[in-house]
Amino acid sequence: MRAIRRHSHHRRSIPALAALAAAAVAAPVLLAAAPASAHPREGRLARELVEEVTAKGAHRHLQKFQQIADANGGNRAAGTPGHAASAAYVHDTLKKAGYDVSYQDFDIHEAHTRTERTTVLGPDSREPATAAFTFTTSTPAGGLTAPLAPARVDETPGCTADDYPAGAFTGKIALVKRGACTFVEKQRAAAAAGALGIIVYNHSGTTPVRGGYSSPAEGIIPSAGITLADGEALTAAAGKGEVTVRLDLDQEHLRKTTRNVIAETRGGRSDRVVTVGAHLDSVPEGPGINDNGSGSAGLLEVALRLAEEGANKKGKGTANKVRFGWWSAEELGGSEHYVAQLSEKQKKDIALYLNFDMIASPNPVQFVYDGDDSDRTGAGAGPAGSAQIEALINGFLDRKGKPHEGSDFDGRSDYGPFIANGIPAGGTFTGAEGIKTAEQARRYGGTAGAPYDPNYHGAGDDLKNLDLKAFDTNLDVIAHAVGTYAESLRSLGK
């Protein structure tokens, strides 16, 4: 999952999802046709898939991803041999199962950070922990030295021009709290106010913000992240008098080629496509077995069991075409590239999108994307149909006696481009670097005050650090949703 720079689950930037959701209500893809008559296998296929898909079966794919990472420098990052081998494994496995399988190649940029440092100058000189944003502009040699100017902290901190009083940011480094809008929007607003650089501090946790932009072209001014504690301390100090810092960022940007893997059933209506996706790549820092080998393995196992149910056999296919996508470069735009190359008709033919990103976190919470915005936090509701997807998943978990809670469509994963094009979306994940509350520990077990995945974006995200019970629950969710929608879109009014 991407860290917010795009997801704290991350990355690339996407337009504000609340506005997109409102615009999406009128999108043609959401016009409901009269409900189709029930397919003979409606309900039965979902039950059979849930029974057949197991954590043990999917674990063999996780083992393969770990072996690939071990053989390729410890990671499966986009544009590397580790990712290429992962893509080939998924492609070849599905080809043997009878799917129509293809690669989709595209170019990405890769960021290599050589220096990321913030120094608070003065008698109490110190260096807060700093993370350069992906695709930031580098500072001049020796760093950028300027006074700090804190942006207004409100419900949309640093997102709009009125958060930057006229003249107060010219020639300074903006200090902005994370949240409510993309990093691109914060950066543009700060730059428009005359800021020479931007430092974003976290809204929770103890780690620096790991943000970024979708390409080097989006990086306007030097940008970096710091922790909540350091941000609040600097804000308080700047309120008492001028605080000068030196921001030193040096980052190289390289172009590489990577690929998505797309597999679809041979049968089923091509104007009622059920699309299911997970990003296949890891970050360079680790093997990415939870993020997102877990979602990738879950999709692969469900696809194989769906094939055994005759999805690719002539005359025995599903009512609706099912399309699986293993996106590369979640950090850099694999699903975004996929959606961008679709024609308007092809977009309209996608009935819904299901996303599964990080479904075996070692200190898990069962999150379900909040399609109806019933939690009233962050972005608004997803496009019409998203509420029904959430209800289908919640209903299934309720029948299983599994606790669950909502998660905002915050743009941190691959559903973003689908939502932006008016396609209803839903899915699950089990948490990234966020901190488990005491109430969540009572409901789900695990450790309060600790991250959902303490190995997020690190070398420890390996085969040993998974919760297989959470994995099994989410495999059942995938199986149930795919089996249901493959045979009927009646719950979506289609």
Give your account of this protein's structure.
- The protein is α/β, with parallel strands linked by helices.
- It contains 13 helices and 13 strands.
- Strands 1, 2, 3, 4, 5, 6, 7, 8, 9, 10, 11, 12 and 13 form a 13-stranded mixed sheet that branches.
- It is elongated.
Mean pLDDT: 91
For the termini, the CA-CA separation is 31 Å
What's the main sheet like?
13 strands, mixed
Helix residue percentage: 25-40%
Class from helix and strand fractions: alpha/beta
H-E string = HHHHEEEEHEEHEEHEHHEEHEHEHH
The backbone outline, from C-alpha atoms, is: elongated
Beta fraction: 15-25%
Name the poorly predicted regions. Answer: 3-37
The total of beta strands comes to: 13
Summary of the model, kept short:
The protein is α/β, with parallel strands linked by helices and 494 residues long. The protein has helices spanning 17-24, 44-52, 55-70, 81-96, 183-192, 228-240, 289-308, 334-340, 344-349, 386-400, 416-420, 438-444, 468-487; strands spanning 100-120, 131-132, 144-150, 173-177, 197-201, 223-226, 244-264, 269-279, 320-327, 350-356, 367-369, 405-407, 425-429.
